[in-house]
């Protein structure tokens, strides 16, 4: 074989290899044109997490569909592969359907989203005058009437999460025999409106709530405190003297087992996604209070964080 012919053959081989590599890349990502379905739950923070996840998957070429899903019903759907991802599941608002699906491998936990959640009961600072002993939960036994309304008197009124989010506050009230009536909030928006109304009129209010949330950048409230314990706090098995309140929440990313099988590169990208409290608080404030379109706020996050997510997409 002469040198000129050999060089031409090598060049042709390189070109052919490059073409094959290009074809493999195009063929492999996305591995399927079927839509990856992302759960959208009831609160703005999760809407943002879901939409950011959708945009990141689109950057890698995937077809994406956002699906409105209830907090509890989505777990069965994800386990069965009818919905594929949820980037922000608060793992202390779960049921046996979730733990069983994780144990069986039908739902895979893909790490923390990066948030540092807190959940519990909040109240206005002016309620300390009417209920000495706050923030300790034991004070609520002696001043339940201070939190009552016409429907609950003489028991206090506690506004809990919407019914579809579970019964954790109701379980705590029952297990520690607290003289309060747990009343489910209609939605996140309805809860915020009731809290603002109470604050404006300096009326009593005790409410289950969470952070991150824009609320804590604008409203000055306190949290009920509980007994510290070692290990996990189990809400339905507490008693008055040793109550620990609520289990420590983690905002985890979950996916159906079929994602890693059908869209392995999407699954790898999903593992890398991180959003901080500060980022989410600013975005929630922009959407809920400044009334900016959610899509605009998500696009802004994508622009501001391009150097970060570019590495994830690689």
Overall description:
The protein is of the alpha/beta class. The chain has 2 domains: 149 residues, Periplasmic binding protein-like II (D-Maltodextrin-Binding Protein, domain 2); 120 residues, D-Maltodextrin-Binding Protein, domain 2. It is 44% helix and 17% strand. The protein is built from 14 helices and 10 strands. Strands 3-10-4 form a 3-stranded antiparallel β-sheet, sandwiched between helices. A 3-stranded antiparallel β-sheet has the order 8-5-9, with helices on one face. β1, α2 and β2 form a beta-alpha-beta unit. α2 packs across α12. It is globular, with a radius of gyration of 25 Å. The chain starts with a helix and ends with a helix. The N terminus is likely disordered.
């Amino acid at each position: 074989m002469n040198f000129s012919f050999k060089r031409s053959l090598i060049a042709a081989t390189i070109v052919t290899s490059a073409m094959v590599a290009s074809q493999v890349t195009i063929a492999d990502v996305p591995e399927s044109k079927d839509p990856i379905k992302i759960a959208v739950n009831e609160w703005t923070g999760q809407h943002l997490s879901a939409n950011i996840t959708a945009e990141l998957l689109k950057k890698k070429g995937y077809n994406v569909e956002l699906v409105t899903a209830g907090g509890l019903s989505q777990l069965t759907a994800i386990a069965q592969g009818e919905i594929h991802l949820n980037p922000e599941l608060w793992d202390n608002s779960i049921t046996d359907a979730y733990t069983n699906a994780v144990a069986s491998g039908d739902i895979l936990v893909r790490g923390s989203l990066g948030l540092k959640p807190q959940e519990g009961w909040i109240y206005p600072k002016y309620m300390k005058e009417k209920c000495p002993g706050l923030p300790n939960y034991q004070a609520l036994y002696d001043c339940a009437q201070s939190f009552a309304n016409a429907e609950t008197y003489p028991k206090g009124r506690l506004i809990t999460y919407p019914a579809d989010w579970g019964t954790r506050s109701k379980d705590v009230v029952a297990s520690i025999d607290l003289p309060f009536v747990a009343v489910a909030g209609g939605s996140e928006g309805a809860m915020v409106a009731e809290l603002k109304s109470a604050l404006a009129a300096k009326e009593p209010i005790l409410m289950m709530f969470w952070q991150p949330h824009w609320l804590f950048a604008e409203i000055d409230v306190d949290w009920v405190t509980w007994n510290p314990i070692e290990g996990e706090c189990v809400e339905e098995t507490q008693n008055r003297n040793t109550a620990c309140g609520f289990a420590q929440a983690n905002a985890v990313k979950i996916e159906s087992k079929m994602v890693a099988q059908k869209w392995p590169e999407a699954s790898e990208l999903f593992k890398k996604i991180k959003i901080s409290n500060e980022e989410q608080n600013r975005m929630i404030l922009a959407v809920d209070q400044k009334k900016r379109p959610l899509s605009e706020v998500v696009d802004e996050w994508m622009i501001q964080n391009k150097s970060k997510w570019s590495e994830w997409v690689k």
